[in-house]
Specification:
Blueprint lengths: L8 E4 L5 H12 L3 E6 L2 H11 L5 E5 L5 H15 L4 E4 L14 H29 L2 E6 L12 H20 L5 E8 L5 H14 L3 H11 L8 H11 L11 E4 L9
Parallel strand pairs: 1-2, 1-4, 2-3, 4-5, 5-6, 6-7
Helix pairs in contact: 1-8, 3-4, 4-5, 6-7
Length: about 260
């Protein structure tokens, strides 16, 4: 199926590992031009070396919690790509912690990482899409906005802001051929998820393998997702094929979320 992404200009944040990297790779394989970011200069270099074998890709190191870095991301992406047609917002996650173990500093940092950065980047990118009369915004968030995950109070709380942001913008830009959606990954085999599961294993006095098995048993598909499976859904939402999908929360969780809505 041709997704109509050839030649589209795509910005994917936090995209040198895990789901973000898988999204960048998928977009390139569909013929899009891609701009990637990461806090680590070394990670950007390695990702570029790998992705350049697939298509036209650029990238810079930048910290999403820093305003000046966010501005530099958008400026650099526009210069490299000639504009931004598709914005895929992805971030790393805050540390896995229970509420009483968190500090105010961790709350402030998590807000900047998960919500402030989404707001700021969207405000810089959305007007260009509206002027052009076409655009796609996809926020990669988490099933935690529908089903809080034990030990992830920072993520459970602040990611809910993305839900309200997405729904509001999707209605505000109606009639402009710009769609705004969110993808909700469940348990996905990334370095971040391994960290979360290792923390849970330590807390519960279990092995990593035992925790993975327990979680797999709670998922109807009886396994964790691969990053590429999330990337496929992101690419669809960013495509011409999803032209009538707007304001949607799309779980990619193997059936984990038990609620109807």
């Amino acid at each position: 199926m041709d997704l109509g992404l050839r030649g589209k200009r795509v910005l994917v944040t936090a995209s040198t590992k895990g789901i973000g990297y898988a999204v960048a790779k998928k977009m390139l394989s569909e013929g899009a031009k891609v701009f990637i970011t990461s806090r680590s200069e070394e990670n950007v270099r390695r990702a570029l070396e790998s992705l350049e074998e697939i298509g036209e890709v650029y990238g810079i190191p930048a910290d999403l919690t820093v305003r000046e870095d966010r501005e530099r991301i958008v400026k650099s992406a526009r210069e490299a790509l000639g504009g931004i047609d598709i914005f895929v917002f992805n971030t790393g996650g805050p540390p896995p912690k229970a509420f009483l173990d968190t500090t105010l500093e961790e709350w402030e940092h998590s807000y900047k990482l998960l919500l402030e950065s989404a707001v700021h980047l969207t405000k810089m990118i959305l007007p260009e899409m509206l002027d052009r009369g076409w655009g796609r915004i996809v926020y990669i968030t988490s099933v935690a906005i529908k089903m809080p995950i034990e030990g992830l109070v920072l993520s459970n709380s602040i990611r809910l802001g993305i839900a309200g942001l997405m729904k509001t913008i999707a209605r505000e830009v109606s009639g402009k051929e710009v769609t705004v959606n969110a993808v909700l990954p469940g348990y996905t085999l990334t370095d971040r998820m391994k960290e979360v599961l290792e923390s849970r294993a330590k807390r519960e006095g279990k092995t990593f393998e035992e925790v993975v098995e327990e979680i797999s048993e709670s998922i109807p598909l009886r396994r964790l997702a691969m990053p590429e499976e999330v990337a496929n859904v992101v690419a669809f939402l960013a495509s011409e094929a999803a032209s009538y999908v707007n304001g949607a929360f799309v779980p990619v969780d193997g059936g984990l979320i038990p609620t109807v809505f």
